Amino acid sequence: MIKSFLISLQFLTAFPIKMNLPMDKTHIEKSIKTFPLLGLFQGILFSLLLYVLTEWTSLSLLAVAFAVWLFTILLTGGIHLDGWMDASDAYFSYQDREKRLEIMQDPRTGAFGVMAVIILLSSRFLFIYEITSFGNSLTLLLIGLIPFLSKSVMGTMLLTIPAAKKDGLASFFQKAGNSSTLKVYPFYLAALYVCILFIDNQFILPSLVLTLIAIGCYLFIRKISVTSFGGITGDVLGASVEGTENILWMTLWLLHYFAMG
């Protein structure tokens, strides 16, 4: 399981894993099982960075927010942002499925991809900055949930939506897994809710809201993926992670205004 987690870390983050890891079907399937755990690991790092910078440094809230925002980009090496740009270029081209898949394979970035990433990153910075200004222990816990839920959405998409093409990273991972691979995801979520309940039951409602929003993101992205691309690709999965995380950051931002004071 540790090797499988390292495979996820190697493929989906910028951590320099300088090991020859086994890439057989068994380890790849277990790697898919660790996607939410990888997300939780990322979320803990985000929360830890926010806590350290706010409590142990004299940096302004603007500087703290910028550091956390930048870290969310650097931690993945921009791999999901690349998918977001490519998928945006393809989706907003309003071409047929085959042409959209060709556009996603084009290494050049078009105007729609540039505009989409500017909107994504600028809005995320706004959400992080204002969330930082509301900062409390509840905020730190909920930030940890964001990448956990987005990686859960990605893993669910991978094994419940057909691949749009027979080659590529998405198809490679998809061939190793099956529907039973996802059975562990609800157990992860249940374990988190139990931990949250023991910490403070006031955390349950906003956590539930974030979970329901993540489910809504999955259903929406599933429809877009099938109708616009004929299924998933690596770029579509990357875009789903970025899109879901941004919606969850926005949800947490709104919760601070209307539910969490």
Automatic annotation (TrEMBL):
Cleaved signal peptide residues: none
Statement: the UniProt record of this protein carries the keyword Protein biosynthesis: no
Subcellular location: Cell membrane
UniProt keywords, alphabetically: Cell membrane, Cobalamin biosynthesis, Magnesium, Membrane, Transferase, Transmembrane, Transmembrane helix
GO CC annotation: plasma membrane
Family, similarity comment: Belongs to the CobS family.
Biological role: Joins adenosylcobinamide-GDP and alpha-ribazole to generate adenosylcobalamin (Ado-cobalamin). Also synthesizes adenosylcobalamin 5'-phosphate from adenosylcobinamide-GDP and alpha-ribazole 5'-phosphate.
Protein name, per record: Adenosylcobinamide-GDP ribazoletransferase
Originating organism: Virgibacillus indicus
